[in-house]
Fold this sequence. Notes:
Distance between the termini: 27 Å
Number of helices: 4
Strand content: 15-25%
Radius of gyration: 14 Å
Number of strands: 7
Amino acid sequence: MYKNIVFHWTGGNYTPCSVDINAYHFLVDKEGNVSAGKYIPEDNLNCSDGKYARHCGGGNTGRIGIAICCMKDKNTPPIQKQVEAMCKQAARLCYLYNINPNQCITHAEFGMIYPNTSSKGKQDINTLPYANKFGVKACGDYLRNKTQVYYDRIKRGYYG
């Protein structure tokens, strides 16, 4: 059973690299293209075999990781096209795996909820400059709301 979807940024450039492909189930580049990582979400249902996406230190089991490729530095912030694509993908996954969109969290929120993990102190995702959203809660709420909008569209039969 899936617990939730965890939103990340890679801390790199606007395109996925080999490290990113191994760490996340899905990656979103600067153009909003979604690509699959090395591992499928089902690989994270049981992480005891060592073959799973290691996106959330201390909490990979039952969690799907989606990352926007950005935040290498101040010149590579998250952009709207990426975030929209990430939230659409999260909505599809919520629908497919019966996850409530309210259960989508950022990596930073995960670290706050589970402070005894190596995710404590993570910053992603705490800034969305194009949307004038700053701070862990504001960004998490924004991403959940976007995901809910896309999820509702899917439930109504609109998949675009």
